[in-house]
Design brief:
21% strand
Length: 276
């Protein structure tokens, strides 16, 4: 299989790009990173991905609307109808009512931030790598105390694993904003999940200390939480480690009997390799 020289598989003259998605993919399974970013076999978008992109676009257009258009107004103008849009419209109205002092800082702004990350190997040797942190955040607000609220929109059901994964993604965005010069001290994370119907997960979030949960009328939840310093520090340490092993071109598989056959497009190749 031919490898493709890209900024996610850089030559000596290139700088490694690290995005929320590429970082998460490598730490979930380096072999999946290899297929998606090195060989570039990413499957075409499925219906759920197309729908997710559409709902993200509706939210972006609403946030950036100079006429203060609601999500419903934007969807109508775009000619889009979806139950997720209806739930998102309800949640955004609740958010604006509950947090009237929040001011929008940015929405879907394309960041490309140079950074130098380090990794200490088992022998105590420190390796440094120049990288480019890239990404577009769904939204960033600022409250009257000057604290940032980093927003992530998630379509699909909200399970406990998605809550954990989304927190890691928001940690990456906090790190990226910190390197961009933002004051991220004491920032908050907001997750908006218009498709969520899992009340057990939502109730668990609501009973957790330091979290505020908003409920949609028919479906959907949104929640705000403080960033966890320990979780954040552990997660950002992995950025240097990830850069190190990508530069070493190490792509081991992390096999899951549940996840891989059910969700990974490339599981047949891994299964065959394990039989050899």
């Amino acid at each position: 299989m031919t490898e493709v020289i890209t900024s996610y598989n850089p030559s000596e003259s290139q700088v490694l790009r690290i995005s929320k998605s590429s970082f998460g993919t490598y730490n979930k399974c380096p072999r999946l990173y290899y297929w998606n970013y090195i060989v570039k076999l990413s499957p075409p978008p499925n219906d759920a991905m197309v729908r997710g992109s559409m709902i993200h676009q509706v939210l972006e257009n609403s946030l950036l609307s100079e006429a203060d258009m609601t999500v419903a107004d934007v969807a109508l103008k775009m000619g889009e109808t979806d139950l997720g849009i209806d739930a998102l419209d309800e949640l955004m109205i609740e958010i604006y009512d509950k947090y009237p002092d929040w001011e929008l800082v940015e929405a879907e702004y394309k960041h490309e931030i140079p950074d130098t990350v380090e990794y200490e190997d088992e022998d105590g040797n420190t390796h440094s790598y120049d990288v480019l942190l890239v990404g577009k955040i769904d939204g960033v607000f600022k409250d009257k105390e000057g604290r940032l609220i980093i927003v992530e929109l998630k379509t699909g059901e909200l399970g406990s694993s998605k809550v954990s994964r989304t927190r890691k993604e928001l940690n990456f965005y906090r790190y990226m904003l910190d390197k961009a010069g933002y004051n991220v001290e004491d920032c908050r994370y907001m997750v908006i999940a218009p498709d969520a119907t899992n009340t057990d997960v939502a109730l668990k979030l609501q009973s957790s200390k330091g979290k505020e949960v908003l409920w949609g009328t028919t479906s959907g939840v949104a929640y705000v939480e403080k960033y966890n310093k320990r979780s954040y520090n552990l997660g950002t340490l992995k950025i240097g480690k990830t850069a190190h092993f990508i530069n070493l071109e190490e792509w081991p598989m992390i096999w899951s009997e549940y996840y891989c056959p059910e969700w990974c497009e490339y599981h047949l190749g891994c299964e065959q390799e394990m039989l050899v």
